[in-house]
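Hi F.,

I've been meaning to write this up properly since the lab meeting, where we talked about keeping a consistent format for the predictions we share between groups. The idea is simple: the sequence comes first, exactly as it goes in, then the structure tokens exactly as they come out, then a line or two of notes. No screenshots and no reformatting. I'm using this chain as the first example so we have something concrete to point to.
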Amino acid sequence: MVSDFCCPVGYDWGIIMASTKHVLLFGDSLTAGYTKRGWLFHPYGEKLQTLFDAANLDVQVTIDGLSGDRVIFLPWEHRLRTQLEKMRRSEIAYGAVVILGGGSVCPLSTQL
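Output, unedited:
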């Protein structure tokens, strides 16, 4: 169970879910919505926002995906630190953060 993995046993997820107002989706081209070899971008965050809206939940999805960025490069780290700094300064309080990266890099670093 997710709650056992990241939070103390007995953690009340109902409180977290009820208070979640902002969700950050952070990543590279997959988060940016790269598809059709770059001719089309359709971020999965747009669908997530649609689902939240359809459920009448007051949740704002922030998509921070950058095509061409890689988890092994400094710009990735800089963008992540920028988002974390916003949280530290209380500009925005993310109730959930999804980090997706490395999907397109993994095949490149695999030796046969």
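Notes:
The CA atoms of residues 22 and 94 lie 5 Å apart.
Confidence is low (pLDDT under 50) at residues 1-8.

If this format works for you, I'll send the rest the same way.

G.
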